Amino acid sequence: MRALFNFLVKHNDWFLFMLLEVISLVLLVRFNNYQGATFFTSAGSVAGNVYNIFLDAGRYFHLKTENDGLLSQNLALTREVSELKEQLAEYRNNQLLQTDSLVNSIKSEYTYQTANVISNSLNKVNNYITLNKGSNDGVRSEMGVFNSEGVVGVVYLTSKNRALVIPLLNSKSSISCRVKGSDSFCSLSWDGGDPRYSNLIDLPRYAQFEQGDTVVTSGFSSIFPGDLPVGTVERIDDSADGMFYTVRVKLFVDFSKLTSVFIVGSENYEEQSYLEQSKN
Amino acid sequence: MNTFLNQLKYFLIAAAAQVLIFNHIHLFGYATAYIYLLFILKMPRFATRNRQMLWAFALGTVVDMFGNTPGIHAAAATAVAFLRNYILAMFIPNGMTEDFTPGTRVLRWSAYIGYTAFCIALFCTALFMLEVFTLSRPLHLAISVTSSTLLTLLFTTVIESLNGHNR
User: Where are the beta strands (DSSP E) in A141-196?
Assistant: First the structure.
């Protein structure tokens, strides 16, 4: 007993070393597998608040580019609104559709809100984005995030006032997509490296598409509405077993210049995820 | 107590410099400078190993919290603190028995760079291995480790040479 005690005292640094390493690995594994505590992330109160202070100071430097972006987006939206108004007027005249019920059905399915990016990374295998909206603002995990250019990612964890997003640039990210003009869908996943590109994995060989086609969300998951732009087809390869295509996609979103985003949530999310889980 | 406060001051400087500045600088998409390692490398030679490891673990955890990499920096920094004294012993001249802070005021440039390079390379290897968890892309891993090691070494050497002028 005494010998054991002496042994423990003599090598206490080894035990401390092992203890600290075990704590680290537990934190690492828990974060990868378990949606729970946000304290040890940038959505937690400590890191989130520090980032917010420095973001407020730094945001002024980007005002000009951001303004230019908003202006051009405004222009495009104004044009789109006027076009849609014309079309609506046409339909009203023709009485082809019960337009009011159509508009209501679009409105009721998804809710939208804006948020600002308070931290972001590009160079890791698993990158994350932190937003300044959290569960107090009605944000929950599995909500979609996009900006005026295209899809950004999916909400992973939320604290009261922050949300941690898994962007397309994360090996855990998997978003249901299709090539515009074809019906076959598959998932978009990232394998590290260049933050301007991602890959469509296992696209069936009978899908008809070519280089330069647009990749959009499929709308089959309850996270994103359909037809949100994601990127363009850059290169088409065979998969390792030759049964599918692997498509290199050039992403629309420039992740290095992300400042403000939209969060979209489906009203029917709980219903759909309940159904999808109960089938297993 | 005074040494503790002093250490805490450097701790906060190292953490702030890392998470607010150096974490946002990526050369060629691969290399990041992990400048906060200087905090561990500059601990007094005879600081107890437990003290070194606890400081390193705390600093790693702070960097993890800001970078959304829970556990990764903490594990790598603790490993460096654990092995640091062995590595330092390889580079100090025989017969040197007094306590000192590793730097060019006591060591020759070649010895100091050898010591820091060894520790930084060890840290970067542990860090990127933990991050990817697999060796499916060995080339990517090798480039990340090498480039980050060199960039960190560059910054630590520049900082050391600036300090040297204050003599």
Answer: 144-146, 151-158, 163-167, 175-179, 185-189
**Which amino acid, residue A63?**
L
Q: Residue A182, by phi and psi: left (phi above 0), alpha (psi -120 to 50) or beta?
A: beta
CA distance A31 to A33: 6
- Point out which residues pair with A260 in neighbouring strands: A116
Q: How far apart are the C-alpha atoms of B33 and B50, rounded to whole Å?
A: 26
> What domains can be seen in chain A, in order of their start residue?
59-170+257-266 (2.40.10.340), 175-256 (2.40.10.350)
What ipTM was reported for this prediction? 0.82
Give the domains, in start order, of chain B with CATH numbers.
Answer: 2-164 (1.10.1760)
Q: Does A193 touch chain B (CB under 8 A)?
A: yes
Whether A131 has its CB under 8 Å from any CB of chain B: the answer is no
Q: Inspect the interface and report whether the beta carbons of B71 and A23 lie closer than 8 Å.
A: yes
**Per-residue pLDDT tens listing for chain A (280 residues):** 788 888 878 888 888 888 998 988 888 877 766 555 667 777 777 777 788 777 777 677 777 777 777 877 887 888 888 888 887 777 766 655 554 554 454 555 788 888 888 888 887 778 899 998 888 888 888 899 988 888 999 999 888 888 999 999 988 888 888 888 888 888 888 887 788 899 888 888 888 888 888 898 888 877 888 888 899 998 888 887 878 888 899 999 988 888 888 888 887 777 777 777 776 5
Write out chain B residues lying below 8 Å of A125, CB-based.
131-132
What Cα–Cα distance (Å) separates residue A151 from each residue in A31, A199, B36? 24, 14, 35
- At residue A247, the 3 state secondary structure works out as strand
Residue A146 · residue B49 · CB < 8 Å: no
